[in-house]
Design goal:
Family: Belongs to the 2-oxoacid dehydrogenase family.
Largest sheet: 6 strands, mixed
CATH topology of the largest domain: Chloramphenicol Acetyltransferase
Subunit structure: Forms a 24-polypeptide structural core with octahedral symmetry.
Cofactor: (R)-lipoate
Helix content: 25-40%
EC number: 2.3.1.-
Oligomer: single chain
Number of helices: 9
Number of strands: 18
InterPro entries: 2-oxoacid_DH_actylTfrase, 2-oxoacid_DH_E2_comp, Biotin_lipoyl, CAT-like_dom_sf, E3-bd_dom_sf, PSBD, Single_hybrid_motif
Length: about 425
């Protein structure tokens, strides 16, 4: 038997250190080639670290939340044969992550059951003998599903490879629990004294740092305007009916991207980056639109590059592709960097007004609120129209209030008269 030591790889782009975000294995686990061992967080993206060998985990080189230098020992695996470490040159033993260290999934799995899933609260499915700190194998999607259902993964028997927990295992556990349910009706009103300590690590730490940095450095101001989107929604419905089956369905987002592209021709100061250390504003001809996307690990901003050269369907397809990649944790560093202006939307949950935080070093972000039908007075008549607010933020160090208002009014005019989106 030998030892194969895996070191923190060089992620590229001059990155000297990364944050160890999540372990997917523990000491004593048997692993196979290409199995994901850990997730590490760079300044731009979450990166999977796979195993290049088959073997048994004998030591871990850090714990979640620890910042590790490129080239430092990440994990040691016992393998058949000589391995890649000679006995005479054996490095100092790497440390095993302390059992008492807080772990994201251990905390998440002890989260109180949400009120939206009361039936999961009384589940008592088939128990599995795991230690309280043991991290069972499961994909991020399965972990999110378990959290929504109020199920502790350490209690679920996994039927996938190497005991990995699958969505079907959650359903089986839930079904077993329902058949054994006997919680008293008054349980929902019982007093609670439990507490949680949730370590801010990985993507959540990176988001927190970026948001704090943005609000401290930029001089934010927001501008809100309502838009009558009845006409553009009618156009969208018409195009989907005529071309949806062959070209794909259009959402409102590609229309918004197109409106931003056209409006930026008259307001190039919005499509810019501000280097506040060098005191230099760089205006860009290319429009690289960041589209804020919620994923299981937090907010990501994949980038639709050269939006100025894309058709509605091209933009729609690229937005959908990038959103899927971000939500699945598969977006590359290049796909998550280089934006010049950002579009953020919560869709039907968008509320009436929001105050988006700038995606530095950009100087403008356009926020989309939900569409609602409202009575409006047009030419003295009360009519029902589809209305939507744009809640946008700007860096007042670079963008004047009048210019911001005119920019949003230009977008409003283009969306309210959607034919002008395509008039050159």
């Amino acid at each position: 038997m030998g030892t194969h030591v895996i070191k923190m790889p060089d992620i590229g782009e001059g990155i000297a250190e990364v944050e160890l975000s999540v372990w997917h294995v523990k000491v004593g686990d048997m692993v196979v080639e290409d199995q994901v061992l850990a997730d590490v967080m760079t300044d731009k993206a979450m990166v999977d670290i796979p195993s290049p060998v088959h073997g048994k985990v004998i030591a871990l080189g850090g714990q979640p939340g620890e910042v590790m230098a490129v080239g430092s020992v990440l994990i040691s695996i016992e393998v058949e044969g000589a391995g890649n470490v000679k006995e005479s040159a054996q490095p100092a033993p790497v440390k095993e992550a302390p059992v008492a260290a807080p772990k994201v999934d251990a905390v998440m799995e002890s989260k109180p059951v949400a009120a939206a899933a009361p039936k999961a609260a009384i589940c008592q499915g088939p128990m599995v003998a795991r230690e309280a700190d043991e991290r069972p194998l499961a994909s991020p999607a399965v972990r999110k599903h378990a959290l929504d259902l109020g199920i502790q993964l350490r209690l679920v028997r996994g039927t996938g490879p190497a005991g990995r927990i699958l969505h079907d295992d959650l359903e089986a556990y839930l079904a077993q629990g329902q058949s054994n349910a006997s919680a008293p009706a008054s349980a929902a009103y019982a007093q609670r004294t439990d507490e949680q300590q949730i370590p801010v690590i990985g993507m959540r730490r990176k988001i927190a740092q970026r948001m704090q940095d943005a609000t401290q450095r930029a001089a934010h101001f927001s501008y809100v305007e309502e838009i009558d989107v009845t006409a553009v929604e009618e156009l969208r419905a018409h195009l989907n009916e005529k071309h949806g089956a062959t070209r794909g369905k259009l959402t409102l987002l590609p229309f918004l991207v197109r409106a931003m592209v056209v409006a930026l021709r008259d307001f190039p100061q919005m499509n810019a980056r501000y280097d506040d250390e060098a005191q230099v504003i760089t205006r860009l001809g290319a429009v690289h639109v960041g589209v804020a996307t919620q994923s299981d690990v937090g907010l990501m901003v994949p980038v639709v590059r050269h939006a100025e050269a894309r058709s509605l369907w091209d933009s729609a397809a690229e937005i959908a592709r990038l959103a899927t990649a971000a939500r699945n944790g598969k977006a590359s560093r290049d796909e998550l960097s280089g934006s010049t202006i950002t579009l953020t939307s919560l869709g039907a949950l968008g509320g009436i007004v929001s105050t988006p935080v700038l995606n530095l070093p950009e100087v403008a972000i356009v926020g989309v609120n939900k569409i609602v039908e409202r009575p409006m007075v047009i030419k003295g008549q009360i009519v029902i129209r589809k209305m939507m607010n744009l809640s946008s933020s700007f860096d007042h160090r670079v963008v004047d209030g009048m210019d911001a208002a005119l920019f949003i009014q230009a977008i409003r005019g283009l969306l309210e008269q959607p034919a002008t989106l395509f008039v050159e």
